[in-house]
Amino acid sequence: MGKPKLVVSTGAGISAESGISTFRDSGGLWENYPVMDVASADGFRRNPELVHKFYNERRKALMNAEPNAAHRALVELEKYYDVYIITQNVDDLHERAGSANVLHLHGELMKIRSVSDPDYVESLDTEHLVTTPATRGKRGDFMRPHIVFFQEPVPNIEPAMELVHEADIFVVIGTSMVVYPAAGLIHAVRPGVPVYYIDPHPADVSGMSDVRVIAKPATKGMEELKEELEKNMKDML
Ligand code: OAD
To answer: I want to staple 22 with a disulfide (CB 3.0 to 4.6 A). Which of 12, 60, 91, 178 is the partner?
Structure first.
């Protein structure tokens, strides 16, 4: 018998303890930057310079951050589970922690893509983190941040929905669950599958059955959940 499938949906809250700002908490990014100016398709058309500048700053902040114990706990759980991470985050902290399977719903900060061909993507190296509307890729195309802006489709939502539908256990960590389609992933869980939600200020999930809320920061909440999930597997051996 294979390992059970543990599918984990993460939001900005999992990276908060690594020093990366969330969006909607008090002092969060959207309090200081108008979201439709810096993270929408219209905003990018109006003022691409500003959008590049915003993501240059995000990359700089990411360079000063390290994965935290919550990212690492998800890697350690790979010993007992087939762990699949679906993240709304554009940081690379899950990858740097060592997670084997990471699906990004909203793009990746450390990548840029062609403005004329969405399938042409290049990785940035840590020495060249600043981009502008004049930045060209190796093929000569003008490049933009590899971010799914508001008003754009979310191409990875379909594989994400499939993963959630196949989950034996589903865990949500650090998301306000207000941005769709990501917020709807929880509804793709099969009946009877245990669902855990770790967030110190969780969204209201009282209308959903089988959700166990762990109202704690990601590192503490994951420490507890990891212990429980490991124990369940050891008890079966
Ligand atoms: P939000 O900023 O909306 O929500 C952050 C969540 O993290 C809140 O529920 C907080 O309570 C929780 N949180 C804060 N500190 C935490 C901690 N130490 N441990 C665990 N949780 C903590 O961020 P997201 O839900 O990820 O999209 O936002 C979703 C999308 O909205 C983002 O991907 C981004 C944004 O606009 C784009 O830019 C396309």
So the answer is: 12
Residue of 176, 180, 201 best suited for mutating to test ligand 1, as the one with most atoms within 8 Å of CB: 176
Is 221 in contact with 213 (CB distance < 8 Å)? no
CATH code of the domain containing 132: 3.30.1600.10
Same domain, 137 and 212: no
End-to-end CA distance of the chain: 12
Closest ligand 1 atom to Cα of 25 = 2
**Active-site annotation holder among 71, 106, 187, 201:** 106
User: Model confidence over 93-128: pLDDT tens digits?
Assistant: 999 999 999 999 999 999 999 999 999 999 999 999
Q: Looking at this protein, which amino acid is placed at residue 94?
A: H
237 pLDDT higher than 90:
no
Looking at 97, 124, 147, which one is the last position of a domain?
Answer: 147
Task: Please give the distance, rounded to the nearest whole angstrom, from the Cα atom of residue 174 to the centre of ligand 1.
Answer: 6
Range of the domain at 6: 1-19+67-106+154-237
Question: What percentage of the chain reaches a pLDDT higher than 70?
Answer: 100
Are residues 133 and 237 located together in one domain of the fold?
no
How many CB atoms are located within 10 Å of the residue 63 CB? 9
Q: Which residue minimizes the CA distance to atom 29 of ligand 1?
A: 179
Neighbours of 2 (CB within 10 A): 5
Residue 142: pLDDT band with limits 50, 70, 90: very high
